[in-house]
Amino acid sequence: MPAIFGVARSTTATYEVAIDIGGMPIRVRTASRPFRRMLEARYAGFVNRSCPEPLFELEVDLVPPGRVAGGGDVRVRQESGRWSIERGDFRAEWEPALRRGWVRQSPNPHSIDSTLRIVHTLLLALEGGFLVHAASAVRDGRAVLFVGPSGAGKTTIARLAPENVTLLTDEISYVRLAKEYRAFGTPFTGELGRPGANSSAPIEALYVLEKDRGNRLEPMRVADGVRALLANILFFAQDPDLVTRVFQSACEFVARVPVYRLGFVPDATVWELIR
Amino acid sequence: MSSVYVAPSSEIAARRLGDEMVIMSVRDSTLFSLNEVATLIWQAADGSTPLDEIVQRTVCAAFDVDPSVALEDAERFVRELVRHGILSLSDRPITRVPATRPEDL
Question: Which of A123, A165, B61, B78 could potentially form a cystine with A161 if both were Cys, beta carbons 3.0 to 4.6 Å apart?
């Protein structure tokens, strides 16, 4: 009904940013210009300005801080093809069939960052890829991944990288499967605080990081490789079908990509072991 | 325990990688890996072949081992997998088709 008196306030006035991570551009829409500016700054290397038809859309509904209640852990559930994602600081819904969703949050960068990560985990799970706690880098056109939990040395090994290495991320690696496994750069940073390069390369090897008294490299048994990979894959949903997909993805990855245990001291010579 | 039937639980995902079978409980994401011998038993656990016949056909045929010792080991192994909920055990043939079939069984 049109407003007769007073000032009509449009809630649909939108600013848009296409955030293109892993070749899966998501158009984020918001009614707030400052929020859009924040997104453009935070995802600077991943904003796609020539992207007429992003694959997915995410509407951001900004509310004052404290308006979204809930616990501290993230809960991801699926019902009738619609995913609901909840954490203390945001609520979101994602509909894969419609390729769109929304998030209700206060104007802060962390909630949208988490929402984007979770949406990407859901998208990747359906196509055999995954997000994993790993640093990744490209040398001579081939990518290597360094997997490990917090404190395992992901940022350290990224810092020690020689000049001819392009860093894709020091925290969360983006892995997709087409004819081969490819690693993509991500804006998700760890202690390094520097977004990765927005590029990609076929994956040559996966290294499972372990702090040691010397540098050493040894092939891992496949079951140990699957175990190490699964322990570090970002996955939030409890849905049995998706859990099975992630398991099969991890097995497929280990069947195709060599996995090594990399014991190292914080010393640049460790890169001499990496092919 | 010799006249028993075993079959993978419906709540697992499994994949053979090289000589090993990697199995995950989709209920709690616990991961198990079976060695070559255990994998032989797992792959033959079709719910309709008695365990003693499985042991005879697979383990005893492939390895030089005393049949009674092999069966005893197999029973211990089966009990452990049943305890973890990744294998079903019955004194009758198991006709139910698991919801999540291991790909390469």
Answer: A165
Contact B100, B13 (CB under 8 A): yes
Name the residue with tokens 């175990």: A227
Using a cut of 0.90, tell me whether the model's pTM lies above it: no
Which residue segments constitute the domains of chain A, with CATH numbers given?
A: 3-126 (no CATH), 130-272 (3.90.228.20)
Distances (CA, A) of A3 to A8, A10, A11, A12, B25: 6, 11, 14, 16, 58
pLDDT tens profile A130-167 = 999 999 999 999 999 999 888 888 999 999 999 999 99
Contact B58, B46 (CB under 8 A): no
Number of H helices, E strands in chain B: 4, 5
DSSP string, A168-214: EESSEEEEEESSSEEEE--S---TT--PPPS-EEEEEEEEEEEE-SS
Closest CA to A12 of A27, A39, A32: A32
From chain B, pick out residues whose CB is under 8 angstroms from the CB of A249: none
SS3 A109: helix
Contact A230 B17 (CB under 8 A): no
